[in-house]
Amino acid sequence: MSAVLLRVDQLVKRFGGLTATDHAQLTVATGSVHALIGPNGAGKTTLIHQISGALQPDEGTISFDGRDITTMPMHQRARIGLVRSYQITSIFKRLSVLDNLALAVQAGCGSSFQFWRAARAEHERYAEAAALAERVGLATRLQTISASLSHGEQRQLELGLALATRPKLLLLDEPMAGMGQDESENMVELLQSLRCESTILLVEHDMDTVFRLADTVSTLVFGKVIASGTAQQIKDNPDVQRAYLGDDEVLDDRVPAR
Questions:
Q1: Are 136 and 174 in the same domain?
Q2: Are 177 and 246 in the same domain?
Q3: Which of 104, 153, 200, 250 could be joined to 164 by an S-S link, Cβ 3.0–4.6 Å?
Q4: Does 180 lie in the same domain as 73?
Q5: Same domain membership, residue 200 and residue 232
Q6: Do 77 and 205 fall within a single domain?
Q7: Alpha carbon distances (Å) from 157 to 11, 59, 85, 146, 172
Q8: Are both 159 and 196 inside the same structural domain?
């Protein structure tokens, strides 16, 4: 059995009278692809915000790699290997693909942005950036200004920026959002290839993608994780089926306060 890399225990986040996460519990095993699904408004992004450090929970704890990170700032979480992407692509659009990745490599190794630096160090930084571009399928686009990339290519670049930090856990919030069929297929293949490098926790609405990629799937409804298991177990789970069909008899006791 794989060790637990991430443990979320009884996590609560309230916004006024709305309970966005309601004593949520989640464990992510090292080396796995773990998908988080749920109807719109279930609290998935709020949960990811708390895991990444963008939001602080009102109650509960978050442990990462055996360390309590509940109150740790977001930038410190990134330094210890917990890195996320966003629903909205975040890249330096006026820079080339290569320069984007070179900056991420420099930030990932903790070097300062000084004017004078050894030519060898500069060469090594750009060589690593080029290797990352090849890793995410952008080897032929090194000198392309990032704003000129297709939406799917921009998402690939964003993933390359995350990989430059050598993450232990990648939090991916809807990595397929806005992609066409071919772009989605490319991203699925890329994520499949990352299994040996990073643990992945992803939020995704495309169920075909989820069931192809995920070792474990957890379903969030009104801020509670109502089921976790393999893709087939989740497909067969009656609570999950009724949640997606909107069966009020199943969900009445989970409606948050308003």
A1: no
A2: yes
A3: 104
A4: yes
A5: yes
A6: yes
A7: 32, 35, 11, 8, 13
A8: no
Boundary-marking domain end, from 128, 148, 165: 165
DSSP one-letter string for the chain: -PPEEEEEEEEEEEETTEEEEEEEEEEEETT-EEEEE-STTSSHHHHHHHHHTSS--SEEEEEETTEE-TT--HHHHHHTTEEE--SS----TTSBHHHHHHHHHHHHTT----S---HHHHHHHHHHHHHHHHHTT-GGGTTSBGGGS-HHHHHHHHHHHHHTT--SEEEEE-TTTT--HHHHHHHHHHHHHTTTT-EEEEE-S-HHHHHHH-SEEEEEETTEEEEEE-HHHHHH-HHHHHHHHT-HHHHGGGPPP-
CA torsion sign, 165 to 169 to 171 to 177? positive
Instruction: Let me know whether 176 and 127 are in one domain.
Output: no
**Domain total in the chain:** 2
Domain of residue 209: give its range: 1-81+167-258
Do 151 and 42 fall within a single domain?
no
Tokens of 176: 């397929």
- For the stretch 203-247, pLDDT in tens is 988 888 999 999 999 999 999 999 999 999 999 999 998 887 655
Q: What is the pLDDT of residues 121-135, one digit of tens each?
A: 678 889 999 999 999
Region for 10 from its dihedrals, namely left if φ exceeds 0, alpha if ψ lies in -120 to 50, beta otherwise: left
